[in-house]
Amino acid sequence: MSKKITVVGTGYVGLIAAIGFADFGNQVIGVDINKEKIDNLNKGVSPIYEQGIYDYLDRNLKSKRLRFSCDIGLSMSQSDVIFIGVGTPPKENGEADLSQVETVLEEICKNLNGYKVIVTKSTVPVGTNRWIKDYIKERANSDNFDVVSNPEFLREGKAVSDFFHPDRIVIGYETEKSKEIIKDIYRPLYLSEIPFVWCNYETAELIKYANNAFLATKITFINQIANLSESIGADVIQVAKAMGMDGRINKKFLHAGPGYGGSCFPKDTKALVKIGDRFKVDMSLVREVIHSNEMQKNRMVEKLRNITGDLEGKNIAVLGLAFKSETDDMRESPAISIINELIKNNANIKAHDPKAMDNARKIFGDKITYCETELDAVAGADALILVTDWNEYRSLDLTNIADLMNNKVIIDTRNMLQPEKAKELGFTYEGVGRK
What we know:
- It is a single chain.
- The chain is an alpha/beta fold.
- Helices cover 47% and strands 14% of the residues.
- The protein is built from 19 helices and 14 strands.
- The chain has helices at 12-23, 35-42, 53-62, 72-77, 99-110, 128-140, 159-164, 176-185, 187-191, 201-232, 236-244, 265-278, 284-308, 334-344, 357-364, 374-378, 391-394, 398-404, 419-424; strands at residues 4-8, 27-31, 66-69, 81-84, 116-120, 145-149, 169-172, 196-199, 315-319, 348-352, 369-370, 383-386, 409-412, 428-430.
- The strands form 3 sheets. A 6-stranded parallel sheet has the order 3-2-1-4-5-6, sandwiched between helices. It has a 6-stranded parallel sheet with strand order 11-10-9-12-13-14. Strands 7-8 form a two-stranded parallel ribbon.
- Helix 5 (99-110) links the parallel strand 4 (81-84) and strand 5.
- The chain is elongated.
């Protein structure tokens, strides 16, 4: 039986959830305080770039199963289930900032006009869902509700696909009534035998952090092996390939590069360290992962400096600004650290990215030059740094680029190009973890 659902927040987490639940046959209202964003969404305009999002958005708007509103109170009062999908950014000390979550809870307390299930989709520290339960019970003076933890595991760039074809669904719950309601909401996935992990709040909360911290650790590990490979003359691509053949290890997330970024890994690893501090548990491995990842970003500029010497006045082309391909998200992108270091060294930067140019302008303003094509970016460059693994960069016409550049230097932070081909054309080529 379909449910009436309010999803608070229309970022990556909230928007994908709202679209997905509507496609499952539920009546969904996506809520946000940004009126311009809401107006655009009701017109079918997405604030984020994701593969396939427009097809699902258009279909569910037309079916009237999905709509968007700025009226959070009315939306909540009309709904059986409220999903919290707002941001939990890191504070300066690394802890998760729950101020947006608390703002949502205040509205829930005002609009608890009948039994409701409150579902936390935002990534929150261990203990948060019990705090949510106590918060609502005390301020609303009611226990006619249930709290459920339902962390998301969406990969940016593949978020729509991941929602409809997840590896598993994690549900932290306490009552059978709330369990049955969640099963109804996710019925298409439940019937298709997607694994459901039913557990308590603390387990669900920790699963999310443990999952992301492990993947971040895997990336950091292969980057350290890449750095060692450079020193001893090994090829990290072959090392990673052989490691990935071991079923216990798996080949995913064994791609050497400039370090991880995005909205999840950086903040979740820092938050996990803070959770460990809170409970007096040593999280030294995760702490070192964070440190090593920052060092890896800096290492990319050192590679360039080792070849070109002083960077002052040098013209540097940067291809790729998003933290990964198939997204326009620049949060914690390695490109930010790299470009900031180049700016600090008084280099001249021309940049290109297929999707992230508008977000880049918000970060760098007029400190760099934004180019419509990759060829515009490399024209007159003393060096080229490839930062994001967009497919179009894998097939760059190196012959043409060689003619356009002042000095033929390539720092390939994603190992996208063929070193032999680059060297045949006279480039000084440096990848990551390759001889």
